[in-house]
Each structure stands twice: as structure tokens, then as C-alpha cells.
Write a structure and sequence with these properties.
The protein is α/β, with parallel strands linked by helices. The protein is built from 13 helices and 21 strands. The strands form four sheets. It has a seven-stranded mixed β-sheet, with helices on one face. A six-stranded mixed β-sheet has the order 1-2-5-3-4-6, sandwiched between helices. α3 packs across α5, α3 packs across α6 and α4 crosses α9. 37% of the residues are buried. Keywords: Hydrolase, Membrane, Metal-binding, Transmembrane, Transmembrane helix. Pfam families: Metallophos (PF00149). One of its GO terms (molecular function) is metal ion binding. This is Membrane protein.
Length: 525
């Protein structure tokens, strides 16, 4: 034992005072060793991490906003099997270009026309001479910015996901490097297959399927660029001046003794109409907006996004279907909390008024169906009149009836004090034999986007109706007219009904008016 102590002194001191470790007896159990995954499985996992991380990175970075001439656009890279470029022009539709073959697609969303940059072009037409070079430079800058951000996002996304999955920095860096190589190969493939002539053969969808008949096909634009440039200048000028015209509208002081109804109609897909309606709602403190239809042009699903601004209006929106509005349009509008869709004589209480309406029986964009014409409109008007009588018998009389076509609206004569319509794109007021007043509104969209092609644009029209809060009878109305696309005039005229109801305040000339006189309009510009 002494020899053992001398031979292993450190071991003896280390175990002094401790019990000797027990040596297990019997058969020892060896730990389970898991087999390492094979190379195929490791590469499959790494590939999945790289692809998923790169995709998440692209989603995180989103798109890049860039000014291109007078427009604001958004550039986005999307994974795709076919590649190419897709240009979205909401609400008109989209066009697709076979610009390249790579697993990445470039999405270009045209967000809006910037009024400041557009106004600069209008005020200085000489700028159009350099517009082409400016647009090319803007697109190049935006694409370069998108490329830098996308590379950063793809590498960061793949690296972060690799770190989460493997928990090893070396594997995570390998995933990031592989994602960079993948993106670089996509860029090389896109560059190698780049087809600049694809712009000559675009694929249209939505309302843009009719674009070649409106602006000419791409080949004619290329061969006659000088003519197209002049047309582009006219379109931009018209749209800009329409936005500018709303600033010339005079301000009014609303009378607390009246309900104020904004009557609009036949917007026909003109996006500038929402800016005008929003301005009028704010200036006149509107209680209810009534739209007598033809908000769309074709009623297609591609147009539905055009209706989204309705949900942001600061007033209830009552709507009936026009002959350019589809059942799909009607369902889409019914999704908004502030919208009341009327059909089949349905009546609703909104803004202190009881309003009933019926949708137009015709749907003229659908050429597969023959329009019923005036007999169909008369039948619809008779159904509406029957519902008005039923409401009156139930002691819930209707204050305002709404139909798109005046032919249908006239059938309500004697059943309601006021009926509103549109369709004609021409404003008029008529006292029917039975005592009902018919008000037909003009086109709040200036006859729609087709107006940008006209040398003499149609005026943009809307009316503010003043109704007594007690009797709910029409006391007066203001007819608002903007000069139309390309013109920057704004006019407001006050009108009184012949049978002006008691309770209206006397105006200085002895006639009766329901509200204070408007402030002096600003000079037209």
C-alpha cells in the first residue's frame, strides 16, 4: 500500500476523505449514437432553408417606391416560374410583358399621379421635351435601389433562418452565401434572356384589354412617338387641371335647420371623382351621399378596387345599380360599413331621411343579353312605386326615392315628394303632374375616363340638396359644375323650387331660402 501511495500521490490526496467510486457490475449500456444525415438530405434541408429564407426576406423588404415622371410607382420582386414583368394600373387592369426568363418576376404598381409634378409639367410644357429621358433615368434609379435592397433582404433572410434552424454560424453563413449565389444566377439569367421588344407585344387584362383601341398599339406608339407624346401631354394636362379645379369651389356655412344631401351619379370609373366628392362632403358638411348609379364602366371584377375610397368617405353612402354596374359591383359595395345598397324598392333610414331605391334592370356591358329598353324601366319603376305605397300604408313613408333611369323614376309620381335619377349625363329638374319632383343629375365623373380623349370635355356635375329637418321636403339646391377635364373653372348656382315650403328663411330679394347665402366665390383660374 505504501508503494501505491508513492506511485500515485496526487490521486491519493484527491480522494482522501471521499468514498471510493463504485464500479458498476454486470454488462455496461453504451450510449445510442444517431447516424448523421446523408449528403442528399443535408443539401435538401439547406436548399429549403435558403429558398424559404430568401422568400421571407423579399416579403420583409416589400417594394421600393420611386417617382417616375409625374407618377409614383412601386417596384417589387416576386418569385415566379415564368419570370417577366407585370404592370398593374388599378383599377383598369394590368399588362404583362415577356421581358425575361428567370424565377423572379418584376411587379410595377402605378400608385398615383402626383399633382405637384403634374402641375409643373402643365405650367411649363417645354419639360415634355425631356420627359422621356427623365422617365428612363427614374426607372433606372428605382430598379437599382430595388436590386440593392433585394440582395440585402435575401441574404439576411436566408442567414437568419439558417441560424434558427442549424444554430451554427458557419451553416447560417453558408445559407446566406448560397442565397446570394442563387440571386446572382437569377440576375444573370434575366440579363441573358432580356427581351426589350416585349413591350411591343404586351398581354392586357381587365379593362386594359381595350387599350389598343383607345391609345393605339405599342408599335404605332413607337413609330409615331411625336404624336403620342402630344397626346400624353394632353392627358396629363386634363387630369391635373381637374384636380386643381376643386380648389376654386367657394366655402359655405351650413344651416343647422337643413339636412344636406350630396347627389352624385354616372362617375364611370373616373378616379378624380372621389377627390371631388370628399372635398364637397367636407365643405358642405354633408349628411348623406346618394349615388344614382353607373359608378363603373363594365362592372368587371378588375374594377372593384376603384370603389375602395367609398369606405373612407365621412358620410353614409346610399347607392343604386346603374346599367353599367354588375351584380358583382353591388355585392362588393355592400361590404363597406358606410354603404347602403338599395334594390327591389328596399327602404332604409339614414342621416335623418328614409330613402328607397331600385337597381336598373338593364346591364348593357353584357352583350349576351338583350336590353329590355323602356318597357323594362317602366316595370322597374312600377315595382318601386308599389313599395312606396306599401311603406306609406305601414306609416313609414319614404322621403326620397332613387332609380338610375329617369324613365323608371317617373313611375313614382305621386308616391314620394322627391325622386333622384341619372343616366342622361345632363342635369335637369322637373315637377311631375302628380306633385313629385324629379331631379336628374349629370355625370359626376365628367362621362368617365373616355372624357380625356375629347377635345370638348363634359363638365363634372354634382348637387347639394337642402331638405327641411322637420318636413323632409326639398327647400333649395346648389348645382355644382366643374369645367371638365382640361378646364379649371368651378361654378355654384343656388336654385329654389316654385312651391318653396314654409319655414325657409327669406333672402334679401324677398324669395325664400333655407340657408345663409354662400360666400363670394373666388375668381375662376
Amino acid at each position: 500500500m505504501a508503494d501505491a501511495t508513492e506511485e500515485h500521490p496526487r490521486r491519493t490526496r484527491a480522494h482522501r476523505g471521499r468514498p471510493a467510486p463504485e464500479i458498476p457490475t454486470g454488462t455496461a449500456t453504451l450510449p445510442t449514437v444517431r447516424p448523421k444525415p446523408g449528403p442528399v438530405r443535408r443539401w435538401a434541408t439547406l436548399t429549403a432553408v435558403v429558398l424559404l429564407g430568401a422568400w421571407l426576406g423579399l416579403l420583409a423588404v416589400g417594394g421600393v417606391r420611386a417617382p417616375v415622371g409625374p407618377m409614383d410607382i412601386r417596384l417589387t420582386l416576386r418569385p415566379s416560374l415564368d419570370g417577366g414583368t407585370k404592370i398593374n394600373v388599378s383599377p383598369l387592369g394590368a399588362l404583362e410583358l415577356d421581358s425575361h426568363v428567370a424565377p423572379l418576376r418584376l411587379d410595377v404598381d402605378v400608385d398615383r399621379l402626383d399633382p405637384v409634378r403634374s402641375a409643373a409639367l402643365v405650367q411649363n410644357p417645354d419639360l415634355f421635351a425631356n420627359l422621356g429621358d427623365e422617365v428612363a433615368s427614374d426607372v433606372q434609379d428605382g430598379t437599382l435601389d430595388l436590386a440593392v435592397r433585394s440582395v440585402t433582404a435575401v441574404v439576411a433572410g436566408a442567414t437568419a433562418l439558417g441560424l434558427i434552424v442549424y444554430r451554427r454560424p458557419r451553416r447560417a453563413l453558408a445559407a446566406g452565401g448560397l442565397s446570394l449565389a442563387l440571386l446572382a444566377s437569377c440576375g444573370v439569367a434575366a440579363y441573358a434572356t432580356w427581351n426589350p421588344k416585349s413591350v411591343l407585344e404586351p398581354k392586357f387584362s381587365g379593362l386594359l384589354t381595350s387599350a389598343p383601341s383607345v391609345v393605339g398599339n405599342a408599335r404605332s406608339i413607337v413609330s409615331e412617338f411625336d404624336v403620342y407624346q402630344k397626346e400624353l401631354a394632353r392627358l396629363v394636362t386634363n387630369m391635373t387641371k381637374l384636380y386643381d379645379a376643386t380648389s376654386t369651389l367657394p366655402a359655405y356655412q351650413p344651416d343647422p335647420g337643413t339636412l344636406r344631401v350630396l347627389h352624385v351619379s354616372d362617375i364611370h370609373l373616373n378616379p378624380a371623382a372621389w377627390h371631388i366628392i370628399e372635398s364637397l362632403v367636407e365643405q358642405y358638411e354633408i349628411d348623406v351621399i346618394i349615388d344614382s348609379g353607373d359608378t363603373m364602366d363594365h362592372g368587371s371584377a378588375a374594377e372593384n378596387a376603384f370603389l375602395d375610397p367609398v369606405g373612407r368617405l365621412d358620410a353614409p353612402y346610399v347607392w343604386v345599380r346603374g346599367n353599367h354596374d354588375s351584380a358583382g359591383t353591388q355585392r362588393y359595395l355592400g361590404r363597406f360599413d358606410n354603404v347602403r345598397v338599395l334594390d327591389h324598392g328596399k327602404a332604409v333610414d339614414v342621416g335623418g331621411l328614409r330613402i328607397a331605391g331600385i337597381g336598373d334592370p338593364a346591364y348593357t356591358p353584357d352583350r349576351s343579353q338583350e336590353a329590355a329598353g323602356d318597357p323594362g324601366e317602366v316595370a322597374a319603376g312600377m315595382r318601386l312605386a308599389a313599395e312606396l305605397r306599401r311603406q306609406a300604408a305601414a306609416k313609414t313613408p319614404v322621403d326620397i326615392a332613387v332609380a338610375h333611369n329617369p324613365v323608371a323614376a317617373k313611375e313614382t309620381d305621386g308616391e314620394v315628394p322627391l325622386v333622384l335619377a341619372g343616366h342622361l349625363h345632363n342635369r335637369k329638374t322637373q315637377l311631375l303632374p302628380g306633385g313629385t319632383r324629379l331631379r336628374v343629375e349629370g355625370s359626376t365623373g365628367g362621362s368617365g375616363l373616355r372624357a380625356i380623349e375629347q377635345d370638348t370635355p363634359d363638365p363634372v356635375m354634382a348637387s347639394v340638396l337642402y331638405l327641411d329637418r322637420e318636413t323632409k321636403r326639398l327647400q333649395a339646391w346648389d348645382e355644382i359644375s366643374l369645367g371638365g377635364l382640361g378646364l379649371s373653372t368651378a361654378e355654384v348656382s343656388r336654385h329654389l323650387p316654385e312651391e318653396n315650403q314654409p319655414g325657409a328663411k327669406p333672402s334679401p330679394d324677398g324669395s325664400k331660402s333655407p340657408s345663409p347665402e354662400p360666400s363670394t366665390p373666388r375668381p375662376n383660374r
